[in-house]
């Protein structure tokens, strides 16, 4: 694991460091939801070299065959490193990476946790090669699950989402576009309410679900 100093801030830094095992265990407890989300993310495959920004414990990076991961949480990075991912400790807003060095970058449920989502997207643009792909997976505010988590935030009923900032689908697409990317396609899962029993789900190529992935291309200038 490569260790570098942070230059930025992360609102969720402490909670993910202090509750890493609790966070990671959610994926084991919610296998049907997790599998649906991974199956959707696989529809936007890694074209090597690949980077996940906000890699956490590698729950998405490993099945997506992502080689590199960035995260500010030391305890999370240790788990990712054990899975064979080459990790760097840093924030999404200040990537210690060369310009145009990756073909694919993933932001999977990361944008709602960063201090500056616009700068994060600009950094992703910088490190991607021309025609490189950015895959941004989010829980939109204007979705059933986004509204559910927003209410839990207000009632202080959640640890991991209490500092999250959710965006609407329109806001997310505008931020991606403003960073210089060209939106190419999208898909979603979690089309059922958050209080219902999880069910296996095939990805749909629409934005109607509560877990939505957007693929955008860095144009050739």
Automatic annotation (TrEMBL):
<dbReference type="InterPro" id="IPR013216">
    <property type="entry name" value="Methyltransf_11"/>
</dbReference>
<dbReference type="GO" id="GO:0008757">
    <property type="term" value="F:S-adenosylmethionine-dependent methyltransferase activity"/>
</dbReference>
<dbReference type="InterPro" id="IPR029063">
    <property type="entry name" value="SAM-dependent_MTases_sf"/>
</dbReference>
<dbReference type="Pfam" id="PF08241">
    <property type="entry name" value="Methyltransf_11"/>
</dbReference>
<dbReference type="InterPro" id="IPR050508">
    <property type="entry name" value="Methyltransf_Superfamily"/>
</dbReference>
<protein>
    <submittedName>
        <fullName>Putative SAM-dependent methyl transferase</fullName>
    </submittedName>
</protein>
<keyword id="KW-0808">Transferase</keyword>
<feature type="domain" description="Methyltransferase type 11">
    <location>
        <begin position="51"/>
        <end position="135"/>
    </location>
</feature>
